[in-house]
Amino acid sequence: MVSACEQNIKDLSRIAVFLEQTLEDERSPVDNNELSSNFSYVERQGIYGVLCPMYAVMDASNADVTNDITRDVMMDLYREPNSAAQRYTRDYIVLRDFSKLLNKIHQQYAYLAQSDVIIRSRTFRRKHTSLLKSVH
Question: What is the mean pLDDT of residues 110-126?
């Protein structure tokens, strides 16, 4: 459980870098449009709404969380696309991959929530309820 949670944190952190750039581009004076509020919601509720409870689970499990993901994971080629078409393609891929990752995380934790083998104690359920609810 801890290693899966740690990997999910790293994957979400990578996606967060790309999503942050997408949001920054949407908020630019040139392209400031109605999508920026949608991207902002995805960033707040999607990324951080799942990451924060995962960190809480890791902390409650006394696991050492080392997340060495920085903005350097995004190459300049993707940070500064040459055209609007390239930027929209990047944004689409970021949102598509984020959706796939959230679905994977949801399946993992839904299984844990229902599994009698892995989750037996009421203490575990009580400590990790926020994470299990956040991925639904």
Answer: 57
